[in-house]
UniProtKB/TrEMBL annotation:
One GO BP: DNA recombination
Protein known as: Recombination protein RecR
PROSITE patterns from the UniProt entry: TOPRIM
Molecular function terms from GO: DNA binding; zinc ion binding
Domain Toprim positions: 85-180
Family: Belongs to the RecR family.
Alphabetical keyword list: DNA damage, DNA recombination, DNA repair, Metal-binding, Zinc, Zinc-finger
Protein task: May play a role in DNA repair. It seems to be involved in an RecBC-independent recombinational process of DNA repair. It may act with RecF and RecO.
Zn finger (C4-type) start-end: 62-77
Transmembrane feature ranges: none
Pfam families: RecR_C, RecR_HhH, Toprim_4
UniProt cross-references to InterPro entries, sorted A to Z: DNA_Rcmb_RecR, Rcmb_RecR, TOPRIM_dom, TOPRIM_RecR
């Protein structure tokens, strides 16, 4: 409890604790944000609080792509303008946004919402690979494009997916190596992703 001051009321400590859960936010930043909101920006604090509770209450996973959606089928999956023969598998919604920003892809997506990480106990079962497999079989998917990151865990995830699809004779490709090794997709510029899509390597 040393990181909290004796003169900090409990609601303030709880707010700091909540903010500290955010990625990249340590105790000092969490305290600075909490004090800032309470001292200078109560409107902003109210907006943050409402947006957060609304998001928690209304966001769900699209039944088709597993991405975030307000409705059963997300905007992308429901669109008539997407090429339903292509399915791009990404780790996170932010990676999907990166691929979209490249303007080089008009197919559909599947969002894993994570990646295979044996040390954290996350394997194909936890990521529900069976659902992806069923999704590919149910639709008229002609090619699966694996766009997991080029980190060690992203590569492991890709390999599991490649093995799964190649044993079922499904055409599978992987983003080209224009993307630097060790990279998370969300930090790569749109141009590089566009080229990596065009140069994608057919594996199976
Ligand atoms: Zn969807």
């Amino acid at each position: 409890m040393d990181e909290y001051h004796f003169n900090e009321p409990e609601p303030l400590i709880n707010l700091i604790k909540a903010l500290k859960r955010l990625p990249g936010i340590g105790i000092r930043s969490a305290r600075r944000i909490a004090y800032h909101l309470m001292q200078y920006d109560l409107d902003g604090a109210g907006f943050l609080s409402k947006s957060l509770s609304d998001a928690v209450a209304s966001l769900r996973h699209c039944v088709s792509c597993n991405g975030f959606s307000e409705t059963e089928l997300c905007f992308t999956c429901a669109s008539d303008f997407r090429d339903k023969r292509l399915l791009c598998i990404v780790e996170n919604p932010s990676d999907q946004n990166s691929v979209e920003s490249s303007h080089g892809y008009k197919g559909l997506y599947y969002v894993l919402m994570g990646r295979v990480s044996p040390l954290d106990g996350v394997g194909p079962k936890e990521l529900n690979f069976q659902k992806i497999f069923d999704r590919v079989h149910a639709g008229n998917v002609e090619e699966v494009i694996i766009a997991t990151g080029f980190t060690a865990e992203g590569e492991t995830t890709a390999q599991f997916l490649i093995d799964m699809f190649s044993s079922a004779n499904i055409k599978t490709s992987r983003l080209a190596r224009g993307v630097p090794a060790g990279s998370e997709l969300e930090y790569i510029d749109a141009g590089t992703i566009a080229w990596a899509l065009i140069d994608r390597k057919i594996i199976n």
